[in-house]
């Protein structure tokens, strides 16, 4: 046979996820921690990895890591599930709660992976767009779930790429208005310091997503976790790839999680830099930063795509959302080191002033 029949129809028109990674001196595009795991922790990781059997399959459920996470959150092991990055768990959610004849409620603009997962799994997508200031249209969401056909929803808090938290009282009202499974994506929890964790006991339809990729400097390792009710976790276990979290990743994550307190000063520094960066952006004519509770700042400006290119020429890579629906004119910059943030502001100032001169 020459030629091959078409792939599954839901793939038509889907673009593969593209992080738009390009070589640069300052990577401010992927919301990573600008500081890698320090030497002392790295030495401990190496010791742990030396002890790891490579010829054996890993513990499928990463129970040692699960226990550490459960204990830290006052939960039992069966309320926690570890995945190959938060991304795997998002896909598992779509597999387990979506599918043909099922509906996912999305609140765009938000993390694009949610909608892609819904399409891959033939899940219908219902949307309640955010308002112009990116706040959630709470009454519209509650009205939409009242129709009764929503099977699962994702509320991102803080939202990526816009930066603001979902109000706690709204999430509670949503949990109480529906029996749909509501995921609160807390990928940036360590920077917002707010969590829906206290509502897990009272709300069986709540599930919380966290990751090691952002605050804990492990984007290269691929570990995330969810916390939810045992019944929900059991369903997710049915659809997951049995050995998705390899033995080395489990070892690295155990060491990092056990030593998570050592990341606190770095997290506090990023939170301070976030305020300094936001204030500096606000002083640039025509640049409007949105308040952020995460480790990135979204800002809107004229000729944002040209500004992106100007920054990139100077070795600074930020994320260009300027042509994304609802995010027109917006760029997102990860909070970097003080030097990187200064370089970003200087590059933007240069761009904005250059345009003023042209007028
Ligand atoms: C980064 C991120 C995740 C998970 O990332 P992983 O690296 O796969 O753990 C989940 N949700 C949001 C909103 C994110 O920004």
TrEMBL record:
N6-(pyridoxal phosphate)lysine modifications at: 214
Signal peptide extent: none
Catalytic activity annotation: L-histidinol phosphate + 2-oxoglutarate = 3-(imidazol-4-yl)-2-oxopropyl phosphate + L-glutamate
Pathway in which this enzyme or protein is active: Amino-acid biosynthesis; L-histidine biosynthesis; L-histidine from 5-phospho-alpha-D-ribose 1-diphosphate: step 7/9
Cofactor(s) listed: pyridoxal 5'-phosphate
Assembly and binders: Homodimer.
HAMAP family given in the database record: HisC_aminotrans_2 (MF_01023)
Protein name as catalogued: Histidinol-phosphate aminotransferase
Organism, scientific name: Adlercreutzia faecimuris
Gene name in the database record: hisC
């Amino acid at each position: 046979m020459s030629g091959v029949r078409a792939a599954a129809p839901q793939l038509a028109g889907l673009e593969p996820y593209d992080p738009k990674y390009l070589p640069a001196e300052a990577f401010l595009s992927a919301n990573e921690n600008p500081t890698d795991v320090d030497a002392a922790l790295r030495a401990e990781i190496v010791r742990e990895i030396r002890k790891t059997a490579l010829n054996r399959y890993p513990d499928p459920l990463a129970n040692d890591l699960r226990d550490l996470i459960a204990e830290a959150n006052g939960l039992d092991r069966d309320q926690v599930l570890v995945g190959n990055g938060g991304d795997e768990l998002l896909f598992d959610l779509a597999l387990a709660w979506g599918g043909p004849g099922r509906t996912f409620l999305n609140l765009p603009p938000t993390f694009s992976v949610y909608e892609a997962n819904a399409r891959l799994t033939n899940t219908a997508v219902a949307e309640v767009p955010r308002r112009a200031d990116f706040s959630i249209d709470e009454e519209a969401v509650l009205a939409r779930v009242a129709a009764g056909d929503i099977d699962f929803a994702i509320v991102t808090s803080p939202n990526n790429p816009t930066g603001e938290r979902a109000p706690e009282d709204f999430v509670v009202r949503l949990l109480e208005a529906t029996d749909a499974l509501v995921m609160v994506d807390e990928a940036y929890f360590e920077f917002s310091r707010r969590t829906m964790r206290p509502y897990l006991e009272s709300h069986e339809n709540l599930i919380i997503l966290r990751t090691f990729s952002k605050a804990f400097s492990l984007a290269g390792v691929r570990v995330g976790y969810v916390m939810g009710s045992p019944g929900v976790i059991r369903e997710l276990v049915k659809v997951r790839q049995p050995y998705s979290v390899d033995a080395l990743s489990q070892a690295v994550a155990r060491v990092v999680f056990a030593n998570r307190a050592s990341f606190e000063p770095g997290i506090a520094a990023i939170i301070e830099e976030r305020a300094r960066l936001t204030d500096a952006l606000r002083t640039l004519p025509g640049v409007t930063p949105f308040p952020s509770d995460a480790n990135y700042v979204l800002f809107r400006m004229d000729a944002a795509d040209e500004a992106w290119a100007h920054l990139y020429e100077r070795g600074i890579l930020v994320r260009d959302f300027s042509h994304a629906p609802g995010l027109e004119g917006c760029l997102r910059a990860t909070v970097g080191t003080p030097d990187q943030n200064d370089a970003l502001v200087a590059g933007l100032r240069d761009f904005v002033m250059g345009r003023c001169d042209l007028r």
